[in-house]
Write a structure and sequence with these properties.
With 209 residues, this protein is an alpha/beta fold. It is 50% helix and 19% strand. It is built from 9 helices and 7 strands; from the N terminus they run αααβαβαβαβαββααβ.
């Protein structure tokens, strides 16, 4: 009978290939995961849409006026551009991700995904349906300034999937900076729409005017 040390040494060649295979499979899985993340993250900013939804759900708790605006049910209006496949994809993905969340800003939420008509229609919809959040998808960047002008004086939080939305007049946008998601806040528009963020958020965000 061989000593235990010799028996253990003889098993190493069979163990090492299995470890190499496991590492190869893990590497392949991570590579596939990165491809999935890139496919989901179709926004200009590069922040995955599911992550954006989770960040927005937490952001509501840092808007001092969110609960009063939402009431017992936070109505969320996701807008996409008709005929734009990427915008339609973002709208459907965001609506699904937001609907899967228990709450937004500690308030139960109801989400609808609609085609964008025009800025005046958005403002009217916010007033009549008590919309707490308007979410703008890719393809609406050039309309964001008109939407912002129409929503001046309306109590609503506007969010865009990219930093460009915030730069054009949405209250909140998202950017990917040094591989990390970053909030982009338009404080001038926030004041015009009765959105008041707590200092904790301002310290972590990039501010645009």
């Amino acid at each position: 009978m061989k000593p235990p040390a010799i028996r253990q040494a003889e098993t190493w060649p069979s163990i090492r290939p299995r470890k190499r295979i496991a590492r190869w499979v893990a590497g392949l899985f991570l590579g596939m995961l990165l491809l999935v993340v890139c496919r989901v993250s179709v926004a200009d900013a590069g922040v995955p849409l599911a992550l954006q939804a989770r960040l927005v759900s937490r952001l509501g708790a840092f808007d001092r006026n969110f609960k009063a605006r939402a009431g017992p049910l936070a109505n969320v209006l996701v807008l996409h551009r008709a005929g734009n496949a990427e915008s339609t994809f973002e709208g459907a993905s965001l609506a699904r991700a937001l609907s899967e969340l228990d709450k937004i800003g500690d308030v139960p939420a109801r989400v609808e995904d609609r085609e964008f008509v025009d800025a005046e229609w958005v403002a009217q919809r916010c007033r009549t349906a008590g919309i707490a959040i308007v979410y703008l998808t890719v393809g609406l960047e050039s309309d964001t300034r008109r939407i912002a002008n129409a929503l001046a004086g309306v109590d609503v939080l506007t969010v865009g999937t990219s930093a460009r939305h915030a730069e054009n007049g949405a209250v909140v946008g998202f950017a990917l900076e040094e591989a990390r998601p970053k909030l982009v806040l338009n404080l001038k528009q926030a004041a015009a729409q009765n959105v008041k963020f707590k200092a904790e958020v301002l310290q972590l965000a990039r501010i645009v005017e």
